[in-house]
User: What shape does this take?
Amino acid sequence: MVVDDKDVRINTRIRAREVRLINHEGVQVGVVPLYQAPQMAEEVGLDLVEVSSQAVPPVCRIMDFGKFKYQKKKRVQEAKKRQIVVQLKEVKIRYRTEENDLKTKLRQAREFLEEGHKVKFLMFFKGREIQFANLGQQVMEKVAAELLEAAILERPPRMEGRVLAMYFASKGVKKPVEETEDAEDEVE
Assistant: This one.
């Protein structure tokens, strides 16, 4: 999000009878009539920028508006950089899934959880397979028992039509461990 000239009131766009003014050095001048504040800003060659329109009277600061826009843009970029996007990953299994295949799917689910994502286990029942829902429930309970050290069970296994679904949330993102030079010395 880029700060637009329309988003922030500056100079003659400020609409108030009086403003709480902060000068270009960061010192609070106090409450000043609006006609006087732009003149003070013009004397030092800077802009009068409304920084808090919600306050009564509004807070205005004498500053370089171009620099203000640049700093605001940088803060928004930093916030985006630190933001973690959590996705819902789906893992599909069957009540007849073999042991090794199930281990592979569990390993993949564990990786998703370590990355900070949520995981949804789905078990579909086709046609007459719905009569084996109790076997599917047992497999889901086995999956839950395996993943409880790496995840939080957000919603236990529950039938949604012909699908048995279970949700897990991550306990937190694991950061990769950096190897130090000391570890190499110990091997010798």
Summary: The domain at 88-170 is CATH 3.30.110.10 (Translation Initiation Factor IF3). The CA atoms of residues 77 and 115 lie 22 Å apart. The beta strands are 18-22, 28-33, 47-52, 59-63, 88-93, 118-124, 151-160, 163-170. The chain has two domains: 11-81, 88-170.
